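Progress narrative, Year 2. Work on FMN dependent NADH:quinone oxidoreductase from Ramlibacter pallidus advanced from sequence curation to structure prediction during this period.
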Amino acid sequence: MNLLVVNASPRRERSLSRRLGAAFVAEWLALRPHDGVVQRDVGIEHPPLLTEAWIAACFTPDEQQTPEQREVLAYSDAAIAELARADLVVIATPRYNYGMPAALKAWFDQVIRIRRTFRFDRAEKTWPLSPLLSGKTLVLLSSSGEFAFGPGGLRERWEHLEPHVRTCARYLGVADGHLHHVAIEYQEFGDERHSASVRDALDGAQELARRLARSEPAPGVRATG
Ligand SMILES: Cc1cc2nc3c(=O)[nH]c(=O)nc-3n(C[C@H](O)[C@H](O)[C@H](O)COP(=O)(O)O)c2cc1C
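Result:
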C-alpha cells in the first residue's frame, strides 16, 4: 500500500500534529515495512493560491491548453497524481482560527479540480462524488489550543476543522465511515489535561494505525474532548 502524509503545520520539531503523524506512520511501518510513504509538506512548502489564470486553464479542454496554462496547472497535476497513487491519506494539521490552516485549504483547492477530479451533473441536480479517493481511507490528525470541539462539547458550534475536511474528502470520494479523526487538545493550557490529551492521542493514532494496517474495522476515533 501507499500512504500519502500531508503535513500542514508551519512548525517543525515543536509541532504536535507532526508528532501524531510520525507516530501513526512509525506504527504502520512496524507492521507493514514494505509499504511506501510519500510526504507532502504543505505547511512548509505552500501550495500556490488559485488565480484567474488557474481557473481559466481548468476550464480549457486539455488539447487546447497553452504551455503557459499547463505550467499553471503543474502543481495541481502533481498533487492529484500523488493522491491517485495513495491508498490511505493522512492529514496532520493544526487548528487555526477554528478551521484548517490556509495552506491546507490551498492544497484542497489544488486537488478538487473541475473536469479533473469532479464534474457538474446538471441533469441530476447533484455533484457526483469523485472516484479519486473512492473506497479509500482518510486519517485526520489534529492539534488544537482549546478543547471540547466534539459532539455536545462547549465549542461544538465553533468546530470548522473536521466538518470542512470531511466535506472536502467526501467530494474526493471518501465515504463518511472511512474518515477517522484523532485530536490533541488543550495545547494553550499546557497543563495535565494537555499532557493526558497528548498521551491519549498518541495511543489513539497508534491503535488506529494498527487496526487499519491489519484491515480491521476502525470506528471514527476522537481521542479527547
Ligand atoms: C495562528 C494560530 C491560530 C490558532 N487558532 C486556534 C483556534 O482557533 N482554536 C484552537 O483551539 N487553537 C488555535 N491555535 C492553537 C493551535 O491549534 C495549536 O498550537 C496546535 O498545537 C498547532 O499545531 P502544531 O502543534 O502541529 O503546530 C492557533 C495557533 C496559531 C499559531
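The chain has one domain: 2-213. The radius of gyration is 18 Å.
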